[in-house]
Amino acid sequence: MSNRRINFHHEYQTTLMYGRYTKELGEFAKEEALKLEKQRRKEERLRNEELHKYRGKCASKLASAFGFIWKHTFAKLGEDWVFLALLGLIMAFLSFIMDHGISMCNKGRIWLYRDLTIHPFAQYMAWVALPVCLILFSAGFVHIVAPQSIGSGIPEMKTILRGVSLKEYLTFRTLVAKVIGLTATLGSGLPLGKEGPFVHIASIAATLLSKLVTSFQGIYENESRNTEMLAAACAVGVASCFGAPIGGVLFSIEVTTVYFAVRNYWRGFFTAVCGATVFRLLAVWFQKEDTVKAFFQTNFTMDFPFDPQELVVYSLMGVVCGLGGAGYVWSHRQYVLFMRRNKKMNSFLQKNRFLYPGIVALLASTVSFPLGLGQYMAGDLNTHDQVAGLFSNFTWTKGYLSVEESDILRHWTTKNTDVFVSLCGFMLYTWFFSIVCSTIPVPSGSFIPVFKIGAAFGRVVGELIHLSFPKGVRHGKLNTPIIPGGYATVGAAAMAGAVTHTISVSVIVFEMTGQITHIIPIMIAVLIANAIAALLQPSLYDSIILIKKLPYLPDLLPSSSGMYNIYVEDFMVREVKFIWHNMSYHELKSVLKENRRLRVFPLVENPDTMILLGSIQRIELIKVIERHVGRERRLQVV
Amino acid sequence: MSNRRINFHHEYQTTLMYGRYTKELGEFAKEEALKLEKQRRKEERLRNEELHKYRGKCASKLASAFGFIWKHTFAKLGEDWVFLALLGLIMAFLSFIMDHGISMCNKGRIWLYRDLTIHPFAQYMAWVALPVCLILFSAGFVHIVAPQSIGSGIPEMKTILRGVSLKEYLTFRTLVAKVIGLTATLGSGLPLGKEGPFVHIASIAATLLSKLVTSFQGIYENESRNTEMLAAACAVGVASCFGAPIGGVLFSIEVTTVYFAVRNYWRGFFTAVCGATVFRLLAVWFQKEDTVKAFFQTNFTMDFPFDPQELVVYSLMGVVCGLGGAGYVWSHRQYVLFMRRNKKMNSFLQKNRFLYPGIVALLASTVSFPLGLGQYMAGDLNTHDQVAGLFSNFTWTKGYLSVEESDILRHWTTKNTDVFVSLCGFMLYTWFFSIVCSTIPVPSGSFIPVFKIGAAFGRVVGELIHLSFPKGVRHGKLNTPIIPGGYATVGAAAMAGAVTHTISVSVIVFEMTGQITHIIPIMIAVLIANAIAALLQPSLYDSIILIKKLPYLPDLLPSSSGMYNIYVEDFMVREVKFIWHNMSYHELKSVLKENRRLRVFPLVENPDTMILLGSIQRIELIKVIERHVGRERRLQVV
Questions:
Q1: Fold annotation for B79-287
Q2: Rounded Cα–Cα distance for residues B632 and B638 (Å)
Q3: Which residues cross the membrane (chains A, B) (predicted)?
Q4: I need a surface site. Which of A133, A194, A465, B20 has the fewest CB within 10 A?
Q5: Counting one residue from A and one from B, how many pairs have CB atoms under 8 Å apart?
Q6: Range list for CATH 1.10.3080.10 in chain A
Q7: What is the Cα–Cα distance from A126 to A129, expressed in whole angstroms?
Q8: Residue B493: helix, strand or coil by DSSP?
């Protein structure tokens, strides 16, 4: 396996930001085919060696004992169930522990900045030091342990699930690098997410678990079975990340597959439910939460969530979010391409591996410093509190505020400016720095930043509508005030849907917020945003696949039904050039001369019957001619 | 087309209850292949005639005008979107109008029984007359117009979506019969549902709309495109039935397809959202509902929906519902088979087509007569009020009741008995009569009855738990009372999931109730119920497919990963019998004698090299032998 990784490493160029493959898919496939036989033998040998290693000394007894127990308990019970439950359990624990680590880092940073000192400069140093250190640690750790763990992981999973084998992406080293690197990255408080990496982590966990089980079971590893497991793993990744089992399953279907085998439907659900349940139960047991609740629980009224007239506004939000999502993907790609093109900056930054991460982390945390610009963008809140605030069920622009409400709003206003300035500042900061930070070579996702941008946009719209219609928009008997928090959820879902080109994000939002009251607005906005974004740009994952030049097999069929109006006759060559039996040398020469670009000529019996006898390559034909009427032949005859 | 239907009619035997096909799949396929050429020509002719008919007189101008408008507006805009939106719109209107008709019938019955008279016998006659009349009308109407509209329609849609063409199921006549028949059937108040028929109606609407559009568009009808449209139609059927767009899409994926093309994902969502939105908006506009709300809106607390310890009870409920679901499918099949076997009863019932429907309707409405047995089973409530009551957010067994609460409970208690008697009576009545009534030859579904059984079971469990732990089950600081309504939703989802073998029913429940607070319990219970039911019995739809002998292509691959341990060597024939070049007549004769059951023999070069040259049929071989060494040949030689 390690041999495989090193081999591959030559083709994988770790550039400043994203790595990229230097070879195109075609070349890659050819070489791969040549190597295949050699590798297979080597791998088998390595595998045997690995097994021998495991079975050396006392480990041998342990393994056989485990194998015996497995065989006589779980294997009989139906190993699938047990395997999937185990996967869900592992992911829930991983997610919980990582969340704990991240929140510890975040708390530490707030503590450093708020309680340690009162001098502004010292506060600034405290505010900046931790993120920079964490990012540098993460970048260094990831570089040493497994550079494949850089970035989101969803583009790679898409590639793997379409049948291209990128085995170095699913090793134990990558798992360790991704888990620790991601914890450090998110602990730094930069506007980055954990969804993509979590999908990757779950896939690695599934692969490793699968190997462990099969090595005890003695059944040969089957490729289809592996794909089934990976698809389930993608689902549990999302599920244990947000506590959203259904959304996770749908997201994994949408993002990773082309044809989904419905017989595997229950797999994803089962493991996702296991993951989400344990993830939420752990919160109850260890964090003394009341009970199993949603991740970003909202409390909108169910009696009158929105007026039908508001659907127009929601649809317009869908349009704007669609354009915004496409703009985000576009600006992300432009930034990466700009940085790659800019040779001076590149040569400067490439002097040291830690230069770029350090500068970006320094910049991002400087801008978000709460005593400086950070006050205009709720810079002192962590991601969870930001989203919880944006989704909160009270109108930010109303006159009277309760204590809890003003406690939330304290972060979103300053003495001189109102909430709109802070919301716009927050959007701009998150937009720009989520793009810049996502190019740092550390594990990170883009889902949550985009989600936050959308939530802030929705909150802006909601508050504006509230200001325009303080008593609600209805003309009827009752006038219920509008709910800006609902607009925030719609905006978040639409924006995230537009960037990822997924509809399932709406389900994730329902599960995250624990409310489904806004189902119609969210679905409408997400569908509109999706359609517009899909017209303008590829999804962020596809864009990264293009940037990284991953060996990705493109879609054969477009999703529009317009394709059914295209027939073979629309693009077939009508006047086929051909040669025929008993054609004269003169005719042959003219055919060859007139069609220099054709590489192969079909051979027919004669131009009337047009019965195909075979085909001949241009080169072969010329060789034959050369042999028969070429210079040497003529000389011979002479 | 009509010719096609008549042809088919010969093979389709309209028995007492379900129709069934008298031919097996193999025969059917052979004959089908023979007829294909003939039919194609006829259909083309008929089609042309139809077109001529349309284009006769003034209709011709109208059609071309419509075609022109379509071509220059919607077709440019992307006809898919418009087509799907139109489909959603049509289904929403249909669903709304049908709901209106059904509720009018129900109200009329209550009015007849309650306000017209006070004499018990007259009340009984009033109570019984309307259902019997409606069922008889429905049975007669359906029989005359289109017998194919009998039953659920989901089994047929499964068959059609797997590639078997049952065109008579998708005609305009079937649509009319199904819509009117279903309205009459459900108006009768028998324990039947509308989900299955709605899927069927949506599919017919999609097919007809598709034909209309293609006839104007001039593009040739494409089979793949049709399948795409049908899958979307199934989704909109469920969506416009319950106002559950996401659940509808998932349900259609689970129930109808084997491999789901993800590129069609948006289709289902778009049309389902259109359908659900318009369906709910119509309720706002015409029924003066406050705003867009869920179908069975619940109001459970979001602060503490359930204690983690209650998850054990939910899991046990999943087990019971799994067994119950399998039992339901089993007893349904047993009843149908029993009725088919019982020749005396059959010969009596077959004297008149209306005998069986009439007797069943009379029996069911007699048992549910509110002054008789009906008081023990909430017989005077319609389906919507029954479910709303079962899902209501208050404890039925608590001491003090508010006015609204006692108004709900009035139907579920009598002077002498408590709620448990009524709930059990309700369950038994629904179980038995939903099975019996589903065999009446009228359009009807089984989803809602099963859903109601589950809801009642959940309510029983919830009330029992409440009686055992009046102050809630938690040991911690706070003791929040448990919510029996939550148990009812869990039971409903688990039972419906077990009978239909779907997981998406959980999503449908979220969307129906407008709450997602119980996501974890519902998902766990549904998964467990599904697993158990799948072990014991096929799904209700598959069971009906078996009963009806529909030409259904079975699944190739089981869903368990155990299949990956089965190799070709496990079942391949190892000692292949063969004949070889230059074998002697004696050897040939012995091979032929020893293997009388083999129909084909492989021919190899010689037994050492075993190079396959071809194969020969036994009959051909014997013929050849006959010709060379047979009697005539010998006579010739002599």
A1: Clc chloride channel (1.10.3080)
A2: 10
A3: 81-103, 124-150, 170-190, 197-217, 229-253, 265-286, 311-333, 354-373, 419-442, 487-510, 516-536
A4: A133
A5: 186
A6: 79-287, 308-336+376-547
A7: 5
A8: helix
- Partners of residue B262 in chain A, C-beta under 8 Å: 253-254, 257-260
Q: Pairing relation of β-strands B600-604 and B612-617?
A: antiparallel
- Of the candidates B303, B311, A252, the one whose C-alpha atom is nearest the C-alpha of residue A244 is A252
3-state secondary structure at position B15: coil
Q: Which residue carries 């279903």 as its tokens? A: B182
Q: Which residues of B touch A260 (CB under 8 A)?
A: 253, 259-262
Instruction: Give the tens place of pLDDT for each residue, A536-585.
Output: 988 899 898 888 888 776 665 555 555 666 677 777 777 788 888 888 88
DSSP helix/strand/coil, B416: coil
Reference A98, options A209, A205, A232, A253; nearest CA is A205
Asked if residues A93 and A278 have their Cβ atoms less than 8 Å apart, the reply is yes
Q: Among A249-253, B52-56, B334-338, B496-500, which stretch is predicted with the lowest mean pLDDT?
A: B52-56
The nearest CA of chain A is from the CA of B290 a distance in Å of 7
Q: Beta strands B259-261 and A259-261: pairing type?
A: antiparallel
What are the structure tokens assigned to A30, written together? 């050819």
Give the span between the Cα atoms of A18 and A339, in whole angstroms: 11
Name the token pair of B34: 């023979």
The mean pLDDT of chain A is 81
Longest dimension (CA), chain B: 112
Bridge partner residues of B151 (DSSP): B443
Place of tokens 């719609």: A490
Question: Identity (one letter) of the amino acid at A361?
Answer: A
- Per CATH, the homologous superfamily of domain A308-336+376-547 is Clc chloride channel (1.10.3080.10)
CB contact under 8 A, A299 and B299: no
Reading the block at residue A409, the tokens are 């709003």
> Who contacts B546 (Cβ-Cβ below 8 Å, separation ≥6)?
B333, B538
Superfamily grouping for domain B569-637: CBS-domain (3.10.580.10)
User: Which one is predicted more confidently, A571 or B285?
Assistant: B285
Please judge whether A564 and B307 are an interchain contact, meaning their C-beta atoms are less than 8 angstroms apart: no
- Select from A292, A305, A519 the Cβ nearest to the Cβ of B520: A292
Dihedral sign (CA A509, A515, A521, A524): positive
Residue found by looking up tokens 């999502």 in the block: A325
Angle, to 10 degrees, between the axis of helix B74-115 and the axis of helix B172-187?
30
Pairwise CA distance, residues B306 & B489, whole Å? 13
**Does B315 reach chain A within 8 Å, measured CB to CB?**
no
Rg (CA), chain A: 30
* Contact (CB, 8 A) for B243 and B276: yes
pTM: 0.80
What is the enclosing helix (H) or strand (E) of B580?
strand B579-580
Asked if A376 and A425 count as a contact pair (C-beta separation under 8 A), the reply is yes
| Separation CA B596–CA B466 (nearest Å) | 71
pLDDT band with cut points at 50, 70 and 90 for residue A67? low
Label each residue of B79-123 as H, E or C. HHHHHHHHHHHHHHHHHHHHHHHHHHHHHHHHHHHHHCCCCHHHH
* Exposed/middle/buried for residue A65 (C-beta within 10 Å: 0-12, 13-18, 19+): exposed
H helices present in A472-575, as ranges: 484-500, 505-513, 519-536, 540-548, 568-571
**More confident site: B132 or A576:** B132
Q: Are A267 and A248 in contact (CB under 8 A)?
A: no
Structure tokens given for B16? 């007492």
Q: Where in chain B is the domain with CATH 3.10.580.10?
A: 569-637
Tally of residues, chain B:
638
How far does A494 lie from chain B, in Å, by closest CA? 14
What number is the ipTM of this complex?
0.78
* Chain A residues close to B523, C-beta within 8 Å: 245-246, 269, 273, 276-277
> How many Cβ atoms are within 10 Å of B575's Cβ, its own excluded?
5
